[in-house]
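Worked example 3. Consider a protein that binds magnesium ion.
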Amino acid sequence: MPIDREKATLSLDEPVSRVRLVSPARAAALEKLGVCTLRDLLTHFPRSYIDLSQVETCGTARIGEVCTIRGTVHEIKLKKPRYNLKLVEIALVDGTGILVVTCFRQPWLMDQVKAGDAVAVSGKVTFDYGYKRMTNPFIEVIGEGEEVTGSVVPVHPATEKLTAAWVRRIVANGLEAAEGLFDPLPLGLRLRYRLMSRNAALRAIHFPRTMAEADEARRRLVYEELLYLELFLMQEGAARSAGCVPHAHVVDGPRLGAFAASLPFELTGEQQRARDEILAALAAPTVANHMLLGDVGTGKTVVAGHALAAAADSEGQAMLLAPTEVLARQHMEGLGECLEGAGVRVALLTGSTAAAERAAIVEGFASGQVDVLIGTHALLSDDVVPRNLTLAVIDEQQRFGVDQRAKLLAKGQAPDALYLTATPIPRSLALALYGNLTLSYIKHRPHDSARRTTRVLSREQQGDAFEAAREALDRGEQVFVVCPLVGKDAEARDAKAAGRAREADAAGEEYHPAVAIEDDADLAGDDVTAATREAEMLQRTTFADWTVGLLHGGMGAEAKREVMEQFRAGEVQVLVATTVIEVGVDVPNATVMIVQDADRFGLAQLHQLRGRVGRGEKAAEVFLVSASQREESLARLAAMESTDDGFELAAFDLSLRREGDILGNRQHGASGLKLVNIMRDGAVIEAARADAQALLEVDPNLEEPDHVALAREVRLAFAHESAIVGG
Ligand code: ADP
Ligand code: MG
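Given these inputs, the predicted complex is written out as C-alpha cells:
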C-alpha cells in the first residue's frame, strides 16, 4: 500500500493518544512532559545518548573521563544523609570490578531499578573513598528482550510515571504513524546544505545507528527550527507595523530638556551615545524595536528616562515595566521624581496599590492625565488601557516572557519599544534572534575608577569579611549580607533545578544547580527563618553597634518598602537579605556585600547580586563565603574573583547564555526552539536569517506552491506567540 504523504503530514497535529500504546494514563503522563500531539512527541528529542560502542568496563574506565559502563545491579539502597536529602546508591558489578553509582533526589529509582537488573550507566568516572564512582549518571535499564537498534541508545526526557524506556517505545510508534511525511523545506535549500529529509532526520535523531548520524540529523533539524524562527520574526515584524501609523517622537521638547538639565550628574560618553541612538530611533517614523544592553550598574535607567520624557513631549504616553515591586518603586522614587520635576505626570501601579488609588490611576491613564505609568506585572492587567501609548519600556527584559512583552505592546497602536537588559548577547546573534532590532551598548560603569573587588573566603576566613564590613560601617558606609536558601523550600527548588539540569544536559552544557532562582515565585519560597535567625545573630554579635534590617520574599510589600527606605535613608546600616535584592536595588552608599554559601548561587545571580554594591563613587568589596570543597564550585567562584565584567563571566559560564533566556522566554520549547544552542549554532543562525530574507523577498506571504508547506510549519511552530501578538 502506498504511503499517504498528506495524511502522514496532517497526522502530526492529531492528539498523541492515537499512537499505539498510548493509553489515557500514558497520555496524561506525556502531557506532563509537554507532549500533547504527535508533533510534540516527534520533537520530544533525546536528552542524551548512550553510545554502547564506547563501552568501558569497571576495570578499564579511566578516572576523570566520561564513558558508558554496562553491568549488573548488585545492590540498590536509599540513603538519607540529611533530613532533607535523599540519595540512591547502586553498586554495579561487571566481571572486572565494582562501580558505585550515586543518584541525588531521584528516589523513584528505587521502583525502577532492582538488584539483578542489567543496566547501562553513562557519566564521568571519579574516584573517592576507595571506589570508582559516578554521580547522577544517565541510567538505563536494558530490559530483557529489549531490542537496542544499533549501538546507540537514546535517552528521552522522562518522568516518574513514564520511564525513558517507555518514552522510547512510544516515540518509535509515533515515527511509524508519521512515516512518509512531507518535507516542508524547499529542495533548493536542502541541496545547498546537504540536509537529510525531515522524515529521515526525525528517525535518526531518535534512533541513530551512530553518533555521527545523530549529529547529521540534529544539523538538519536545527536549521529547520532557525529558518522557521527567522521567517516568523520577519513576518511578525512586518505585520506589527502594517496598517498602523508609527509614532515619530519629538526629541527636542521642553520636558526632555528639563529632565536632562535636572540630572545630578553628567552622562558618560557611552550613555550619551546610547541616549542619542534611542532618541533617533524614537524620532524616526518607523516602529522602533530597540535594546539597550549594559552590565548591571552601567546606568541604563537614566538613559531610558530620556525616552520617557520624549514620549510626554510628543503628547504620547509611556509605560515602564519592571519585574519586581521593589524595583518599580525605586524607579518611581528616583526616575519618577526627576521626570515630575520636568513636568511629566508620573504614576506608579503595582500589585499592592490600594483599590481606590488604583482606580484613580487607571482612569487617569485612560484619559491621558498620566503621561508615564511605572509598574510591575500589574501594568499588564486588561483594564489598564492607555489613551495613546507611544512607548513601552521593559526593564530587565530577560525576566519577561515573549507573551508578556506582546501583551504590553498590544496596549498601543504600534508603539515604539525599548528593552533594557544585562544579559550579554553578541550583536550578530541579537539581530538574528530578534529580527529587526536596533541595539545600543554601555560597557563601562559611570564610576569605573572606583574599583569593586571580589574575594572568595572559606568559612574559617569569614571573619575577614566581617572585619571589612565593620571598617566600612565606621566610614559611614553600608553593608549587605546575603543569606542562602536552605531547608525544605530549597529542596523544592532543587527539584526544579534537576528539571533544568536535564535540559542543560540536552543542550550539551554544564549545569550549575544554583542558577535556578529566577522569578518571584521562586523567591516566595525563601527560607525566612534562616534569614531571620542570621539577622538576629548579627545584630547581637558582629554588628551590635549598628542597626541591622531584614528583607526577604516572605515579607509583605509594605514591610519590604519600609526596610528599603530605612536602608536608603541610612537608618539601617546592615541589610540582611535573601535574593530579593538581586535585581536593580540601588543604594550607592552600600560598599560591602557578604554572600553566605556563595556556591549555592549561580554565576549570573552572583553577578547580579554584587551589582548592588559599587554603584557610587566609593570602592566596593564583595566577599563570597563558601564551605564547598568541590573543585567545580571553587572554579566557578574563582571566575567571580578574576573578572568583574558580566560579559566575560558569561563567556566562562555558558549557562548564562541559554537561548531561552535570550529570547525572553524561560519555558523551553515555547519559543519554538528545542535543539538550537546559540553558542554552537551561531553560523547556522546567520545562514537561516539570510535564507529567510531571500525567501520573503520573492514571496512575502509564502504563497508559492513550493512554500505553502513551509508557511504552515512556521505558523504551527509559533502558534502560541502569534496568537498572543494578534490578540
Ligand atoms: P543599571 O544599568 O544596572 O540599571 P542603574 O541605572 O540603576 O544601573 O544605575 C546605577 C547607578 O549609577 C545609579 O545609582 C545611578 O544613579 C548612577 N548613575 C547612572 N549614570 C551615572 C553617571 N553618568 N554618573 C554618575 N552616576 C550615574
Ligand atoms: Mg536597572
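Take a moment to read the result before moving on. Residues 211-241 form the longest helix (31 residues). Residues 265, 267-268, 271, 294, 296-302, 446, 586, 588, 615 surround adenosine-5'-diphosphate (ligand 1) (CB under 6 Å).
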